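Quality-control log, excerpt.
Job 1 of 2 completed; input and output follow.
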Amino acid sequence: MAKQTKKQKSQADSIDRNRFYGVDEAIGIVKANATAKFDETVEIALNLGVDPRHADQMVRGVVSLPKGTGKDVRVAVFAKGDKADEARAAGADIVGAEDLMEEIQSGKTDFDRVIATPDMMGVVGRLGKVLGPKGLMPNPKLGTVTPNVGEAVKAAKGGQVEFRTEKAGIIHAGIGKASFPQADLKANFDAFVDAIVKAKPSGAKGKFVQKVAISSSMGRGVKLDLEEIAGA
């Protein structure tokens, strides 16, 4: 077994692995343990009582974090004419049509979100094998296929986070940076969990939210007391 570093030892000593923490205390521990040379992301992981292999148990959606993500989100937009101008004015990083499709087919995917106007989905549809596995395919349910591209770009840039269940019914997401004030991380945490609870699918049976933990990019996970979490 590899020897623990001083940092790992100090983190292990500060976290009782058999204890479930209140949200505020857990956020404080995660912030204190985020001692890397970069501003670590504070991440949440939820174990849900669903089997995402069944369509009626898939949990997917978007949530706007009230305090933002602290991350510079690069947005690509498929649009033409006035809609392309609208996307650029709203701050889109890359705007195009067939030319953008060709760039992506050649392997250029240096963006975090893809938005498209409805009339461009014939072009975007050809990129399913590239964008689909990366979770980047525009989707009307997520607001990323829309005529209102300006609003969608601003939302993506301003703290909107997509979520979807992975195998075993787990959802991971970043809810801010370790440098954020405690109150801002708590506000983002509450908004994210509330969105998950509201997205409970019709096929979910039994207890929906089974486990919740938070950590920083390089830190250990801190398990949360579900009784403190509204709706869990």
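Job 2 of 2 completed; input and output follow.
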Amino acid sequence: MAFKEEDFLQLSGIQHFLFCRRQWALIHIEQQWAENVKTVEGELMHKKVHSEDYQERRKNVLKVSALRVQSYTLGVSGECDLVEFHSDDNGVPLKETEGLWIPYPIEYKRGRAKSDHSDIAQLCAQAICLEEMFCCDVKKGALYYGETRRRQEIEFSEEIRSLVRNALKEMHELYKRGYTPKVKPKKGCKSCSLQEICLPDLLKNRSVEKYLREELQEKPCDIY
């Protein structure tokens, strides 16, 4: 199935969706947004990467920041923080550039590696877009975390690719219906910038006192 451009979803939304379907719907369907320290820090990190707006070649690596990507099969579009094109005999030609190249996407995150696959899926979605645009295989990429200041290399297994395809299928269905799902509160809720917007509906059958008592006993986790 091929999507029309007017039906494309934001590529970055898959990270929100896999962390919390309700969070994704509030942002991307209801157009709700709120800032907190974590979202501001994350935005500043991305602006720093994108503001460089450069294309640089060093030996066998060509670096391009803020590269726009899209996929008609996934129905998404967005922007890669950084794409390194690595010289490779099995790669593809690039316009006005000698040699053959393989894309290697790099996504920047403010915190540290998460226990779920939300960041990995976002990076994999970028890789699938690059594969479709450049007609090549993109087997690896990297996540750079600001807290640890290290890259974590990611291999795009079929399991992760299936996760991306299935998640986006569900995202398109919910978006088409305009439906915001309900979810059970979890420890990550306390660090979510949409907590005040989201919780009133979630707490209809649960006392605020009980929710706060449980949350104070749990450590918040980074979501950006």
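Post-run check on job 2. Helices lie at 13-19, 21-28, 37-51, 118-134, 158-177, 195-202, 208-216.
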